[in-house]
From TrEMBL, chains A, B:
This is Aspartate aminotransferase family protein. The keyword Zinc does not apply. InterPro entries: Aromatic_deC (IPR010977), PyrdxlP-dep_de-COase (IPR002129), PyrdxlP-dep_Trfase (IPR015424), PyrdxlP-dep_Trfase_major (IPR015421). Its cofactor is pyridoxal 5'-phosphate. Belongs to the group II decarboxylase family. It comes from Aquariibacter albus. The modification N6-(pyridoxal phosphate)lysine is found at residue 319. One of its GO terms (molecular function) is carboxy-lyase activity. GO terms for biological process: carboxylic acid metabolic process.
Length: 505, 505
């Protein structure tokens, strides 16, 4: 091996050692250090970024090891460790270490998945990976799709595919006169990627009708049926229903099969946003899995007619499949609707031969042109874990969340709110919003755990009101690190941080 | 270090060794092997993907090293090596090996750059990286922006920001009545990301007016001025001009300063698509750099009033900055136009405290919500190379392309067509399209080099005609591997593959 390649490999080995130490203990190398963190393994308190990153671009280069030696302590101290067992604020999961190696390999191979003729093998691996995802979640009818940069991109891509179908002439005329009449439907609990996707498509906020949810934050078919009838009477054109398998606020799963049947009857494109929750449908295939799903409010995921009935389904492998950020999956019942929406015929390309693989290039199936090899880390992870390993990780998350729920129920200090899958909302039994804010402020200061706060829409509301009560939210997406005993201790640890008045009587 | 972490590091070390061998010789580990490839280092002949990737998802997992042992030979044989010196078909560059390590680190850190409160340091590093890019290309007026998944995403994001400005009420009403009147402008040579971006925004193909180019494929301001006057007379609303710093077909650079002045007068948003070519503006800062830019048809990049006058500028760091795929940069004169277009106020988020950093979250500045740490590989690369190292790599590419141009000019077999920066078109002196096709077929069969073919718009044409002559296209984006001697030999090597009739008299 020649000297530059040798130096490169040496720098890489040093990096691997650093990352392996962090893998062994998420706080290794951080300011607090492993000793200070034990035994509670406190989440490091967030601080404003003190670093002054205002230096001009260096003129002269520096050896790679010198650059890394300066950068690494900064990064390890300044960024929260992703696999901390009390990082419960958002549905951003710790990464599978093996997928981290997959990212190294994908970057090193630099395959451009826009064109099959340059990266046919990589495209085949992406197709296999998508087929495995569909198989995993029990949705074999979803025959193909695309990996995109995240759940928002996957959802946007589905919206555009649906729009090209709903708006004949869209390629040439744009939305045209139909635009103002088009109405999409989703629940009051849906994620704002959808509002944004409709805005980016030119439809604006008025293109989305949000519908009230039940006490468990689920959209009921009769609510949708009433809205559809009213809109049709008013001359509007219903075209898209977005149902949720795991809402952002409380993890709620809509009654998917019933909504799918209604969408079919009404000729709506059904997109299921399973960014967070769809992978848990993998548990339907194991003994007791359906009961476990029902116990955590997600019986719709145990129904084989659920996800499998979607026209499109988005997953975020960087959530419950523990992939590096930057990977969203879109699966479709009719993958050929993607080229119908996205295909171009750039007049400057004039290749001599038809491609050996007659399938359309991925650059003709989505918004991107050049594309990274997003499938590689996931393809490797799926093989290393196998369906059994994946289900073990998903089961651990639901069991961890169940332990948290039980402890909250037993706690004199807290009341539980809506919660499904690995997400649970709760708040101090007394003291209202002030007590929620006080607890969050104390957690921020002492870094014991990272939680977030959400507002939820009440009955008959189409969005959470500005003054609605705030709920603390815990998202258990720690994979096999979701130890029930640690999560069961959390309510007590949080209660110790409440003012006496907030604990209630 | 405990056993899982140790096994993980060992698997990573094996991967590093494999990638280092490939770094030393791009064909190492491939089917042909280094011996067979010397001395010409033939580009491996593309074959249809023979692999049957139709196995179901494995039920049981397997050890990571077993998964890698099976996957690696497949990947190394099946994917073309990115740093092959004769991979000239597309503007996809070989990756900086140090940036590959940056990808490993970014995946391992799993920072989510959507929210500052979770990844403030990473957001600060992204901001510094963007500032360095602006400094590098001599555009200090571009004060901020965003890293996105690629050049198309960067351009789309600029289009949406411009649209939110052009269409008051866009958030609520969508395109509304203004939609059908809006006209965007670009040259006949522009990349199809723009057509797609306008379609995705709901404007359709009719929303883009393509304008004829000069003999060097450049849009001239007087052509634009005439079109603007005609459209304004007809009651249409000009809102966006996309100028090119490096077109896809021939690398052409539009007269940026003159177009910028016109755009300013006419109140158009000027987006410069510098996905490929903008980094070469870094050469304006070195002695002789402006002459070198002028000699390769890119004198507009030597003008400090060029890129610096843009409202927005897109770069693809995975091209001439040699980053892993999946990184596009958007720089803006008024970065605050991004939140004006993209900001949402999701009613379910109810954080207790205002963020320590009052800048808007990146998830409020673009189409994405969760975002990977795209800046990290680039931030590390820029420090390791320094401005001097970056300029050396860019200079090597232009010198390589100049050697190719000179050799084509001296060749009895070929005539050169339009070409600027590192891109050059050419075709056999005789034999027309058939000779082009025959040469490409022979190159595909023997794998000596990878070239592509393009059609270019002629005078007064707004797009290349279907029957326009085809040009061979060579894109020199090999960094310091763009050896002029190898590129000077290429015309002779290609001529040896022509039928006698195609060489001409």
């Amino acid at each position: 091996m020649d000297p530059p390649a040798r130096a490169w490999a040496a720098a890489g080995q040093a990096l691997l050692a650093t990352l392996a130490a962090r893998l062994r203990d998420p706080l290794a190398g951080g300011a607090a250090g492993p000793a200070a963190a034990a035994p509670g393994r406190a989440w490091p308190a967030p601080e404003p970024c003190r670093l002054e990153l205002h230096a001009p671009l260096p003129q002269a280069g520096r050896p790679a090891d010198a650059v890394l030696a300066q950068a690494l302590p900064l990064l390890l101290e300044g960024l929260p460790p992703p696999d901390h067992p009390r990082a419960l604020a958002y549905i951003t999961a710790p990464v599978d270490p093996f997928a981290v190696l997959g990212s190294l390999l994908a970057a090193g191979l630099q395959a451009n998945l826009g064109l099959r003729r340059m990266a046919g093998l990589a495209c085949a691996i992406e197709a296999q990976t998508l087929a495995w995802l569909a198989e995993l979640v029990g949705a074999p009818a979803l025959r193909g799709g695309l990996l995109l940069g995240g759940g928002s991109a996957a959802g946007q891509t589905a919206v555009w595919a649906a729009l090209a179908r709903a708006c004949p002439g869209w390629h040439e005329e744009g939305l045209g006169a139909r635009g103002p009449q088009l109405v999409a439907y989703a629940s009051a609990a849906s994620h704002h990627w959808l509002d944004r996707a409709l805005r980016l498509a030119g439809l604006g906020a008025r293109g989305l009708r949000r519908l009230p949810v039940d006490a468990e934050q689920r959209l009921q078919p009769e609510t949708l049926a009433r809205a559809l009838a009213a809109d049709r009477r008013a001359g509007r054109i219903p075209w898209l229903l977005v149902a949720h398998a795991g809402t952002v606020g409380s993890g709620a799963v809509d009654p998917l099969a019933a909504l799918a049947a209604l969408a079919r009857r009404e000729d709506l494109w059904l997109h299921i946003d399973g960014a967070y929750g769809a992978p848990y449908a993998a548990l339907q295939a194991e003994p007791g899995g359906s009961d476990r799903l029902a116990a955590c409010g997600a019986s719709a995921l145990a129904d084989p007619a659920g996800l499998n009935q979607a026209d499109s389904l988005a997953l975020d492998p960087h959530k419950a499949l523990h992939q590096p950020l930057g990977c969203g999956a879109l699966l479709l019942r009719r993958p050929e609707t993607l080229p119908a929406a996205f295909a171009d015929a750039p007049p400057y390309y004039a290749e001599a031969e038809p491609a050996a693989d007659p399938a359309p290039d991925p650059s003709q199936c989505g918004p991107e042109n050049s594309r990274p090899f997003r499938a590689l880390p996931l393809w490797l992870s799926l093989q290393a874990a196998g369906a059994q390993g994946l289900r073990a990780s998903l089961r651990a998350e639901l069991d961890g969340a169940a332990a948290l729920r039980a402890a909250l129920q037993a706690s004199p200090a807290f009341v539980g709110g809506p919660g499904a899958l690995g997400v649970q909302t709760f708040r101090p039994r007394a003291g209202g919003d002030a007590a929620v804010g006080q607890l969050l402020a104390r957690l921020r200061a002492d870094g014991h755990a990272a939680l977030s706060a959400v507002r939820l829409a009440g009955p008959d509301e189409t969005a959470p009101a500005a003054g609605a009560p705030r709920w603390l939210r815990a998202c258990v997406v720690q994979g096999l690190g979701s130890a029930p005993e640690g999560l069961a201790r959390l309510p007590g640890e949080l209660a110790a941080r409440l003012d006496p008045g907030a604990v209630g009587d």
